[in-house]
Amino acid sequence: MRSGRDILVYAADYNKGNAPISIIFDDLLAINDQLSNLNGNALDIIIETPGGSGEVAEDIVKLIREKYDDVAIIIPGWAKSAGTIIAMSCDEILMEPASALGPIDAQITRNGKTFSAEALLKGMDEIKAEVTSTNNLNMAYIPILQGISPGELQGAKNALDFAKVLVKEWLIKYKFKDWNHHSTSGLPVTVQEKEQRAEEIASDLAEHSKWLTHGRSIKITDLERMKLKINDYSKDVELADAIRRYYTLLKMTLDTNIYKVYETVESQIFKSLHEPNQPPAHKPDQGNIAVFDVNCPNCRSLYKIQANLGVEKPIEKGHLEFPSDNILICPKCRFEINLSQARQQIESQTGIPIV
């Protein structure tokens, strides 16, 4: 796509919310596997993600940066939340007007509800301020205060600071590494100026009260107002055409039962959801096993099925063994799921029988 640069694709389908489309620990193995197939000196990452674990995003960046000094990220669609954190670790960010990043304000799940860590902390500060000014505690606040421990408040603060610290560190180390002179005055850029700019950008991206919702789209113009340099690839007709053509093919791939794609020019890993009677859409992993996902059509529970090819192997933790009679009994609701076509697809693709 861009001459002389390796390409790594990490993409998830926003429309398959019943699948694990977020950035999670399992992604590390697939990304590391795809990186092992690359041998160039520079990397372009094409990303499409709703976000997910900031800790896993940090580990993904470490894997990439151990291999490459020159990394660019291409965002043809959305890279929200932890995807935005990854973008801030790159030397170059390529977007077009339709592309979007998202706020990095930490989200906390409590009692089945997800909300902003910043909103929680600011709410507590407002209660403190009201009590201080009136010397009286509104009785309506008591149930709220009883349900929140000091440890939870500290956890919310730590989660909020984590994303900001990562973004600030990576902007200084990577995005700003070649920012040596001011574009207007031509004067040298000091370390203190890089730190200040990085702090301002990280704080802006993490400010829930500015963006109001975690899913808000942050466009090129928003980022440029933060004084973050963005490469608008729509101004390069040839490059824009290549990216859009690939993105169309990627979306067509995700319009199937595939919910995640890890891809290089030479290799692909797909993760798929499978309804009954649908075969898995990818070839087995090395080690003579094939692992694929099955959704129970009755209770919608998701299971990972391990098919041993040719020889018996231990069933990995969290996996269910491919049934010898092709009928999987849902452990939760006891519904019978017919995997006959899955067996046929795997054995025809590999030429090896399931044992």
UniProtKB/TrEMBL annotation:
Pfam families found in the cross-reference section: SDH_protease
An example molecular function term from Gene Ontology annotations: peptidase activity
SUPFAM superfamilies according to UniProt: ClpP/crotonase
The keyword Amino-acid biosynthesis belongs to this UniProt entry's keyword annotation: no
Keywords carried by this UniProt record: Hydrolase, Protease
Keyword field contains Transport: no
Source domain of life: Bacteria
GO cellular component: membrane
Gene Ontology process terms (BP): proteolysis
Gene3D superfamilies per UniProt: 2-enoyl-CoA Hydratase, Chain A, domain 1
Protein name, UniProt field: Clp protease ClpP
Lineage: Bacteria, Bacillati, Bacillota, Bacilli, Bacillales
